[in-house]
Recover the amino acids of this structure.
């Protein structure tokens, strides 16, 4: 019998955080990445039946889906029509999604985030200013109901406010698992959002116990992790790291980024989380797609982080299935997360198993985010033709 091209990607795995039970017995290692698509209810920002359909189309038996970035509070929002986890409408909407995914035999984690400085007063309650570790404004524009506006200078958080944000994360994690039916949560510490802003030298200029050394800059992130673990259990908590991001005007120097990973690896491993997702922009075609002339780092951050973290490791960031298979085969990673490929290939896992070509239409950025008219939400979202892996290759 010929060797399966994606033998490791299609092999089963029980998440490390679930070692004391069989909470998540995955049948394969192909994970759907979180993708912000801004197609939730225009008024409540709650998921609807069309969102449940979108996730259900991409559900595979025994596979893991991570939902789009979901705000932990109204003050954490950063995008129009991006979902939250802080109202009853949100809970009810997410229950539509989790019930549908579970009905097809899949698992689903909620990605929780706070936008931090990557927001705007037009997006926040009562027009308050966005917040951050320090008053460092991001270059670029926020998209609001009143149009595009340059990012504002954020207000530096005080210690009491930080305590409240930690509680917001823990409460959102509790709501996600105990009310909305999620199997777990993934904390978003990338894309230049609040958790990464505390880690990065550029955005954290604090002189208190949350600034200065890497240990101090990591303190807030670890407080959030620990609060969520206390709320729902370590086996239901994961985190995404993304040192070297070019998103949200946050480019970190390689030496400090690697030092962050060297410190965070053992810290996160000791907490026995479900997994850590290490995201990178080092891989072709993604860095070229973003208009970069060369990768962010000279170092392979996946291989580097593996030296410092021996728990379940997921890799993500413009990887081809072939590259992901190599990382799994060599032991660098345990799971691989795909985003763009899942946009236009709802049954991606079946196509990989059958050795079929992928539909590459997902790289069209014009269909990534919700259209101006919500009546057109299905375009580029749920209307991709289903590719039968038993017939001709995708066009």
């Amino acid at each position: 019998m010929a060797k399966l091209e994606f033998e490791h990607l299609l092999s089963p795995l029980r998440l490390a955080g679930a070692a004391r039970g069989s909470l998540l017995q995955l049948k394969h290692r192909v994970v759907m990445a979180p993708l912000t698509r801004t197609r939730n209810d225009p008024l409540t920002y709650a998921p609807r039946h069309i969102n449940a359909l979108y996730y259900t189309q991409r559900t595979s038996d025994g596979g893991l889906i991570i939902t789009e970035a979901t705000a932990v509070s109204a003050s954490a929002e950063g995008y129009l029509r991006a979902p939250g986890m802080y109202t009853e409408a949100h809970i009810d909407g997410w229950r539509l999604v989790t019930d549908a995914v579970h009905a097809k035999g899949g698992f689903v984690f909620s990605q929780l985030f706070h936008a931090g400085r990557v927001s705007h007063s037009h997006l926040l309650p009562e027009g308050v200013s966005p917040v951050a570790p320090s008053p460092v404004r991001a270059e670029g524009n926020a998209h609001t109901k009143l149009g595009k506006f340059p990012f504002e200078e954020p207000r530096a958080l005080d210690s009491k406010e930080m305590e409240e944000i930690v509680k917001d994360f823990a409460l959102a994690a509790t709501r996600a698992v105990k009310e909305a039916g999620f199997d777990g949560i993934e904390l978003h510490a990338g894309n230049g959002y609040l958790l990464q802003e505390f880690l990065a030298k550029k955005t954290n200029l604090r002189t208190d116990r949350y600034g200065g050394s890497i240990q101090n800059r990591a303190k807030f992130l670890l407080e959030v992790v620990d609060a969520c673990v206390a709320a729902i259990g370590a086996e239901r908590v994961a985190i995404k790291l993304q040192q070297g991001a070019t998103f949200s005007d946050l480019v970190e120097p390689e030496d400090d980024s690697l030092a962050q990973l060297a410190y965070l690896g053992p810290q996160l491993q000791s907490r026995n989380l479900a997994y850590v997702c290490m995201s990178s922009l080092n891989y072709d075609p993604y860095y070229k797609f973003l208009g970069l002339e060369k990768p962010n780092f000279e170092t392979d951050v996946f291989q580097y982080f593996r030296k410092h973290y021996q728990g379940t490791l997921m890799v993500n960031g413009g990887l081809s299935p072939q590259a992901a298979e190599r990382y799994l085969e060599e032991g660098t990673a345990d799971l691989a997360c795909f985003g763009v490929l899942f946009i236009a290939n709802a049954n991606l896992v079946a196509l990989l198993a059958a050795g079929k070509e992928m539909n590459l239409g997902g790289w069209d950025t014009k269909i990534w985010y919700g259209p101006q008219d919500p009546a057109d939400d299905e375009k580029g979202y749920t209307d991709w033709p289903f590719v039968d892996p038993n017939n001709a290759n995708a066009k």
Notes: The chain has one domain: 13-376. The radius of gyration is 20 Å. The CA atoms of residues 275 and 312 lie 5 Å apart.
